[in-house]
Each structure stands twice: as structure tokens, then as C-alpha cells.
Design goal:
This protein is mostly helical. It is about 75% helix and about 0% strand. The strands form 2 sheets. The chain has a two-stranded antiparallel sheet with strand order 1-2. It has a two-stranded antiparallel ribbon with strand order 3-4. The two termini are about 35 Å apart.
Length: about 500
């Protein structure tokens, strides 16, 4: 069980700042281009290219960090990730050109940011109190379909995942309300814009160093830091360990296909991250299309071309995020499932399905109660997918599952043989295992699914926006939510069928 210090470092360090640094860099990279490099043309295109390169690298980096944490422990990996973020923030304001310097600096930041986001998921199972069984008892396991019977432990994952969603949301607000105003305050004190931006990056880099040290020191304890077993440390043995580590990835991918709960977690991660892009990117573009005659190609263009559209879009996005923060602990309070069906995830996907269809048909030229109600559904859908995707993945990691079917009929035939009975009982105890040794790799694949969603929606949604109309990306998001809803219901129906077949 995690200590109070470890839980505090996880929530106030890893979760809070994993999104905070990312929001800060995304919001200020255009100022790096104009104030540090002094480029005045194609700013939006350059920023978009940097963001696309960031996500491409994250597709590879997220599984790598997960695999590495399974071998050296999340304590060291989390510290390394935030140290890389600190170094990249310092480098970002030393560049003198976009290609290759700014691109390389942004890719270094992507390495650290992907590590931080992966560790949010990888560390979660270790923060949840472990279930304990009474002496001589094992968790109830269905011997026919080899699936565990879930209990109150699932709700612990949902409760903590709710707070994870809350603290990541607060982290975004910290970046917007804490980090972003610093350059303006420094300029008011007489500092030039270039130096004010650089000093802000130094301040944020120092914060990242503090978080890195806190992760390394705060996550002390052998039970939560490393999965490496003692043994020889020769070059050959280290190479063998690395080789064995990469064999985890196909195992996790197979589990994602064969185990419904894990597959749903990955799919919900995809939908949650795509919803984040829909709210932050396509709502401003949609409002701009409703109010302004001149087309826009990004949030910066919306600001420049139509101030009213930007204000309304910011208000709509703000309302959705307020509801997301409000409902994060509410979703965490509800149990992971009600009998066989994941009711909270069904509620989240229904909210998204209905919300995106209605929003695509609404007039957003002015704020009205129906518009605000619909964007609140979008925020509820987003946070519900985030919280319960984390819950599904975390509970899967710690679920106790049978490794083989243990037969006890032969033991009953010879009750007088005490040694034989003892041997068989010990074998039955060993026939239960968890997937905690794969938690880092599972977290990497989870983050990979989210990064893939961002790339797909950004590119495909943008093409549909231009060719079919501004409402097209929202119909695409509706399809994503509808697909997740179908998967949740299908998995629940499958469990009902299995449970009736075993009666």
C-alpha cells in the first residue's frame, strides 16, 4: 500500500504537472517563434508542424517509457521524465532557428512529456490499496471461464482515478492562471518581451526540476520502485533483461484483444484524448465559421480575425472544462461497474454521442442555455472517458487471475495423504497472478492510444472540416463515442452470457 507521502507526490507532482507543462509549452510556442527566433511569417503552420512532430514521437516514446518502467521502476523513470522536461524548457529559449534547433528542442520536450503522461497511468495501480484475503482463502474465481470475480477493489481504482482527473484538470488551470501570466508581469516591471519569455521558461524549468527530485525522493520504497530482481549485472545480463522487457509489448497487445476490460481501457483512452482535441481545437474553429466570413486555420487565426468568436469559443470551452472538473470526483465515486455493465462509461459515451450531434446542429453565434447545456455534456463525456479508462486499466493490472485451472478432485480421493493435500493446496494458491509486472507497458500502450487519437482527429478532422463543413469533426467524434458505447455494451452482454453459461 502506498504511503501518504507517495500518494501526495503522485497527485500533487506527477498528475498535477504532467498536463501543466504541456499546456504551457503549447500555449507559448508561438511566442518562442516570434519573440525568441523573430520569425513573423507562417507562425501557425510552424506551430502546427511542431505539434504534429511532438505527437509522432510520442507514439513511439510512450510504449518505450512504459517498458522501461517495468524494468527499472517508475521512481527513476518519473524523475528522468521531469528532468528531461526541465532541460528541454531551458533549451527551447536558446534556439536561433526553427529547423533544426526548435524542432529538436520540441522533440526533447516530447520525450519528457510522454514519459510524464505515461507515468500517470503506470503509477496508479501502485497507489491503490491492495486487497487482502483471510488466511487460507483465495479470491473467488470462476473456474469455467477463468475470469476473476470483481469486488470493492474496483471502486478504489475509480475513486483514485477520479482524483487523477481532477488534479490533471487543475494542472491545466495552473498553467493558464499561474505560468502564462508571468511574461506579462515581467514586462510590466520593465523587462523586454524576449527576456521575459526566457525568464518564464527558466522559472517553469526550475519547477520541473523540483518535481523530478520530489518523484525520486518521494517514491522511495522497494514495493513501488522497481521490478528488477537481484542478480548479476554484467553487460550480457543487462542485454538479456532489455530483450525480455521488449517481449512485454506483444503480450500486452494480445491482452488488449483478448481481455475486454483492458481493451475497453485502451479504446476509452482513444476517445478521451480525441474529445480533448475536439473541445480545444474544433470548437473555436466552428464558432469562427459561424461568426466570421474569413476562414481560420487555427486558434491564433481565430483570435486575429474575429475577437467575438474567440471570446465565445473560450467561454464554451471553459464551461465544458468546469463541468469536467466538477464531474471528475463524481465519476470516481461511482463503482467501476454495476454487475456486468460499466454504467458510468455508458453514461459518458451517451453524453458524448448526443452532445456532439446536437452541437454540430446548433447556432453558436451567441451564448444560450441550450448551447451551454450541450457543451456541458461534452465536458462530462470527456472526463468520464478519462476517469474510467484509467480505472479499467488500473484494476486490470491488479486483478488476481488464474494462470491455470487447478483441479482438486484428485486431492479429495486421498484425504489421508497429508503431504499430497498440502502440495495441491499450495499449487492452487500459486495458480493466481496479477499483471503488475506489465503495468508500465500497459500504461505505454494506453498513452499510445491517446496520442494516436490526437493525430487522427487533428489531420482527418481538419480535412473533413475543410471539405465537408465545420460540423464534420463533431460527427466524427460522435462516431468515436458511439463505437465505444457499442464496445461497452457488447462486453457487458458477453459477461452476462458467460455467467449464465456457468450456472
Amino acid at each position: 500500500m502506498a504511503t501518504k507521502l507517495q500518494l501526495s507526490v503522485y497527485l500533487l507532482g506527477v498528475c498535477l504537472f504532467s498536463i501543466s507543462f504541456l499546456v504551457f509549452v503549447n500555449a507559448t510556442v508561438s511566442f518562442v517563434i516570434t519573440d525568441i527566433i523573430h520569425q513573423r511569417k507562417d507562425i501557425g503552420d510552424t506551430a502546427g508542424t511542431l505539434g504534429f512532430a511532438d505527437e509522432l514521437l510520442a507514439l513511439v516514446a510512450c510504449p518505450f517509457w512504459g517498458l522501461l518502467s517495468d524494468r527499472i521502476g517508475f521512481r527513476l523513470v518519473a524523475g528522468i521524465g521531469y528532468a528531461i522536461i526541465a532541460a528541454s524548457l531551458f533549451i527551447l529559449v536558446q534556439v536561433t532557428n526553427v529547423y533544426p534547433q526548435l524542432l529538436l528542442a520540441r522533440l526533447i520536450f516530447s520525450l519528457g512529456a510522454s514519459c510524464a503522461s505515461t507515468m500517470v497511468t503506470a503509477i496508479l495501480p501502485s497507489m491503490v490499496p491492495k486487497t487482502t484475503s483471510t488466511a487460507g482463502q483465495q479470491p473467488s474465481i470462476n473456474s469455467r471461464n477463468q475470469s476473476p470475480v470483481r469486488g470493492p477493489h474496483d471502486s478504489s481504482h475509480a475513486h483514485l482515478a477520479g482524483f487523477v482527473g481532477l488534479f490533471t484538470g487543475v494542472g491545466a488551470l495552473l498553467a493558464l492562471g499561474g505560468f502564462l501570466p508571468i511574461p506579462h508581469q515581467l514586462q510590466r516591471a520593465g523587462v523586454t518581451p524576449e527576456k521575459a519569455l526566457a525568464d518564464t521558461y527558466y522559472i517553469v524549468a526550475a519547477t520541473a526540476i523540483i518535481v523530478a527530485v520530489a518523484c525520486y525522493c518521494g517514491f522511495g520504497g522497494a514495493a513501488t520502485t522497481s521490478s528488477i530482481r537481484s542478480g548479476p549485472t554484467s553487460v550480457r545480463s543487462v542485454a538479456q533483461r532489455v530483450s525480455n522487457t521488449f517481449s512485454y509489448l506483444p503480450t500486452v497487445l494480445k491482452l488488449g484483444v483478448t481481455q475486454p476490460s483492458l481493451g475497453l481501457g485502451f479504446l476509452a483512452s482513444f476517445v478521451a484524448r480525441s474529445s480533448s482535441v475536439g473541445i480545444s481545437l474544433f470548437i473555436p474553429l466552428y464558432v469562427n465559421a459561424s461568426l466570421c466570413d474569413k476562414p481560420a486555420h487555427g486558434v491564433e487565426d481565430v483570435k486575429a480575425h474575429c475577437r467575438k468568436a474567440y471570446v465565445i469559443a473560450a467561454q464554451l470551452s471553459g464551461v465544458s472544462q468546469v463541468f469536467a472538473l466538477t464531474f471528475a470526483p463524481i465519476f470516481g465515486y461511482f463503482p467501476l461497474r454495476h454487475r456486468h455493465f460499466n454504467i458510468p462509461l455508458i453514461v459518458a459515451t451517451l453524453s458524448g454521442t448526443v452532445g456532439y450531434i446536437l452541437f454540430a446542429r446548433m447556432n453558436t453565434s451567441k451564448l444560450s442555455p441550450p448551447v451551454l447545456a450541450v457543451v456541458s455534456l461534452l465536458g462530462i463525456s470527456q472526463i468520464g472517458s478519462i476517469v474510467h479508462s484509467l480505472s479499467l486499466v488500473s484494476s486490470f493490472v491488479t486483478e488476481r487471475r488464474p494462470t491455470k485451472q487447478a483441479g482438486t478432485n484428485d486431492a479429495i480421493a486421498d484425504d489421508d495423504d497429508h503431504e499430497e493435500t498440502t502440495r495441491l493446496l499450495n499449487r492452487n494458491k500459486e495458480a493466481v497472478e496479477t499483471h503488475e509486472h506489465l503495468k508500465g507497458t500497459i500504461a505505454g500502450v494506453y498513452s499510445f492510444a491517446g496520442s494516436l487519437a490526437i493525430l487522427i482527429l487533428t489531420k482527418l478532422g481538419g480535412v473533413l472540416f475543410d471539405r465537408l463543413g465545420p460540423e464534420a469533426p463533431f460527427y466524427l467524434l460522435c462516431i468515436f463515442n458511439l463505437g465505444l458505447l457499442f464496445a461497452v455494451v457488447a462486453c457487458g452482454a458477453l459477461e452476462v452470457y458467460k455467467s449464465r453459461g456457468c450456472q
